[in-house]
Design a protein that fits this description.
This protein is about 45% helix and about 15% strand. It contains 15 helices and twelve strands. Strands 2-1-3-4 form a four-stranded parallel sheet, with helices on both faces. Helix 11 links the parallel strand 9 and strand 10. Iron/sulfur cluster binds near residues 86 and 285. Iron/sulfur cluster binds near residues 111, 196, 284 and 285. This is Quinolinate synthase. Catalyzes the condensation of iminoaspartate with dihydroxyacetone phosphate to form quinolinate.
Length: about 325
């Protein structure tokens, strides 16, 4: 089955500001096929904010940051979920939808933060700090979540830390997120040494250069950036919070200190705002393409599985977060 010409035209209308006409024919065939496959297989596509615009705006059913995807994954009425994002996100979707088939189009779509820590590391932290609760960022494997008391995202980390009512918490694995949250709370935060390879590359000097080159620019930073970068920014927040900020404040010119595709996706929603785009790509997010989403649906690959005992314990940590 193929989508009608008018649907294809309206899809291109949506992305024409960020995809040149010459590139569109390279996408339209896969988009047609994916839209048809979704109907045939009763499938939905969940896409993270860092996915490219032809995925985010043309084939995704649910879009957002990690928290939004985790929440909305629980409400989908479909047999198959394709996660256009990285592996830990697909695992989280599977945790919350154990009866559904969850597919990740490329098994190599990992994450430097998720890879920075193992379940054994978490057990060692517990031995070192007995009785201190463990808050784990969702950018971790199911095995690491299973060793944790509760999960958090960059959007809710402060609320989660303060919900525990303890003077100290262990917050894993993002050192910069932990240090950024520590500036906002009296709770003592014990951090790990994990970093996001995309956000750790931004520097305060980058921001100063941007302000010089683009006077009056509003700078928004993701809390996975080093604290010195966050301190130089006008606002820090999760991808959802940055997107909300642009919608509410409508700055004349803005720069998002985060992954490149995020600016493209938000720019489409706000044509009146001028986006300056310093580009730090996430190589893991960019492994997901229309071609491998299509192949995932055609060939039912790669099915995400989690050991049942690990899944039960990891699910509890995610559900505790969702209840806060
Ligand atoms: S942007 Fe950073 S945190 Fe997100 S998937 Fe890529 S490496 Fe991991």
């Amino acid at each position: 089955m193929s989508i009608s010409l008018s649907t294809a035209a309206s899809l291109y209308d949506r992305v024409r500001r960020v995809i040149p006409p010459i590139e569109w024919p390279a996408f339209s065939d896969d988009i047609d096929a994916i839209l048809a496959l979704k109907r045939e297989r009763n499938a939905v596509i969940l896409a993270h904010n860092y996915q490219t615009p032809e995925i985010f705006h043309c084939v995704a059913d649910i879009v957002g940051d990690s928290l939004a995807l985790a929440r909305k994954a629980m409400t989908v009425d479909a047999q198959v979920i394709v996660l256009a994002g990285v592996h830990f996100m697909a695992e989280t979707a599977k945790l919350l939808n154990p009866g559904k088939t969850v597919l990740i189009p490329d098994l190599g779509a990992g994450c430097s933060l998720a890879d920075s820590i193992t379940a054994a590391d978490v057990r060692l932290m517990r031995q070192r700090y007995p009785g201190v609760p463990v808050v784990t960022y969702v950018n971790t494997s199911a095995a690491v979540k299973a060793e944790s008391d509760i999960c958090c995202t960059s959007g809710n980390a402060l609320a989660i830390v303060e919900s525990l009512g303890t003077p100290r918490v262990i917050m894993l694995p993002d050192e910069y997120l932990a240090r950024n949250i520590a500036t906002q709370t009296k709770v003592e935060i014990i951090a790990w040494k994990g970093h996001c390879e995309v956000h750790e590359r931004f520097t305060p000097a980058d921001i100063r250069e941007l302000r010089e080159a683009h006077p009056g620019v509003t700078v928004l930073a993701h809390p996975e950036c080093p604290p010195e970068v966050v301190a130089e920014a006008d606002f820090a927040g999760s991808t959802a919070a940055m997107s909300d900020y642009v919608g509410r404040h409508k700055p004349a010119r803005v720069v998002l200190m985060t992954e490149c595709s995020m600016s493209d996706n938000v720019a489409i929603e706000h044509p009146e705002v001028d986006f300056v785009r310093p580009c730090n790509l996430c190589p893991h997010m960019k492994r997901i393409t229309l071609a491998n989403i299509r192949a995932a649906l055609e060939e039912n690959r790669h099915v995400v599985t989690i050991d049942p005992d690990v899944a039960d314990r990891a699910r509890r940590a995610v559900e505790r977060m969702l209840a806060v």
